[in-house]
Design a protein that fits this description.
255 residues; globular; Aminopeptidase; 32% helix
C-alpha cells in the first residue's frame, strides 16, 4: 500500500485520526495501542499498530487474549505505517480476513475557499454538542440501534472536542456531520442523511458548512475516511477538493 498524493502525511494522520474518534479505553500491548469501546464501531475497537513488538507472534497472542476477554473479536487497523511492515502478511497467515479497504483523504487550508464558493445553506446549524435529534439521524442512518450501544456511541462522540453540523428542513433534521478538533486539524466523521432525503444535496451543504467553519478556526487541514467501495461519498469529497493521501483496511479474526 502506498500513498497516492504528493500531500501525503500518513505517519502523522494515523495517530491523529485515532484521537478524532477516541476509544473509551486504550491499552498498550507490546507497543501497539489496543482500543476498546464495547464493540461500537471497529475504529474504536481495534489495534493501532504503530510500533514494532519484539516478538510478533507473542504480541498477536496477547492482543487476541485481550479482545476475547472482553467478548470482542481481535481486529487490526492496517495502514502503510503499521509495524512491523510484514504484519498484514502475518495476520493473513493466521486466518485474519481483510475487510473494508478505506481511503484517507485530506483538504488543505489553501483549498477551503474553493470548497465553500457560492452561497451557504442558511438551514445548516453548528453546535458544540450533538442534540438528541442529531444523534437520532446518525443512529437511524448508520446505527447502532440498541439503547446500550447508542449510549456508548454518544460517549465516543463526546470523547473529543468537535463541531456538530445539522441541516433542518421544515423543522426536521435531514442531514448531519461531525468535525473533530485535534491539534489544529479537523476530522470529518458521521456524515449521514435520512434515507428518504438523499440525493438532494443535503450532505454537501453540511460538508461545506464544516469546511467554512474550519476556515474560520484557521485549521491547517481537514481529513476524512471513506470506504473505497462508497463511490457516491467519494465523488462528493472529490468535488470539494479532498485528495487521497493514505489508506487502511481492517484484519479481523473470524469467530
Amino acid at each position: 500500500m502506498k500513498p497516492v498524493s504528493r500531500s501525503a502525511e500518513p505517519a502523522s494522520l494515523d495517530a491523529v485520526m485515532s484521537r478524532g474518534w477516541r476509544a473509551l479505553h486504550e491499552e498498550n500491548i507490546s507497543g501497539w495501542v489496543c482500543r476498546f469501546s464495547g464493540g461500537v464501531t471497529r475504529r474504536a475497537n481495534s489495534v493501532l499498530p504503530l510500533s514494532g513488538p519484539v516478538d510478533l507472534s507473542l504480541a498477536i497472542d496477547a492482543v487476541e487474549d485481550a479482545y476475547r476477554s472482553r467478548g470482542l473479536p481481535p481486529v487490526f487497523q492496517i495502514s502503510p505505517d503499521s509495524l512491523p511492515h510484514d504484519l498484514d502478511t502475518s495476520l493473513d497467515a493466521r486466518g485474519y480476513v481483510l475487510d473494508s479497504p478505506t481511503l484517507v483523504q485530506l483538504l488543505r487550508r489553501g483549498d477551503f475557499a474553493q470548497a465553500t464558493a457560492g452561497t451557504p445553506d442558511p438551514g445548516v446549524v453548528l453546535e458544540e454538542y450533538p442534540s438528541e435529534a442529531w444523534l437520532q439521524v446518525l443512529w437511524e442512518s448508520e446505527g447502532p440501534h440498541s439503547p446500550l450501544e447508542q449510549a456508548t456511541s454518544a460517549r465516543i462522540l463526546g470523547n473529543t472536542p468537535a463541531v456538530y453540523a445539522s441541516l433542518a428542513i421544515d423543522g426536521h433534521i435531514q442531514a448531519v456531520a461531525r468535525m473533530a478538533l485535534v491539534d489544529g486539524l479537523g476530522g470529518i466523521y458521521a456524515l449521514a442523511t435520512r434515507e428518504e432525503s438523499r440525493s438532494r444535496g443535503y450532505g454537501r451543504a453540511v460538508m461545506r458548512a464544516l469546511v467554512a467553519e474550519a476556515g474560520r478556526r484557521e485549521l491547517t487541514a481537514l481529513w476524512l475516511q471513506v470506504v473505497e467501495a462508497n463511490t457516491i461519498a467519494a465523488a462528493l469529497y472529490a468535488s470539494l477538493g479532498f485528495e487521497t493521501v493514505s489508506r487502511y483496511h481492517y484484519r479481523q479474526l473470524p469467530s
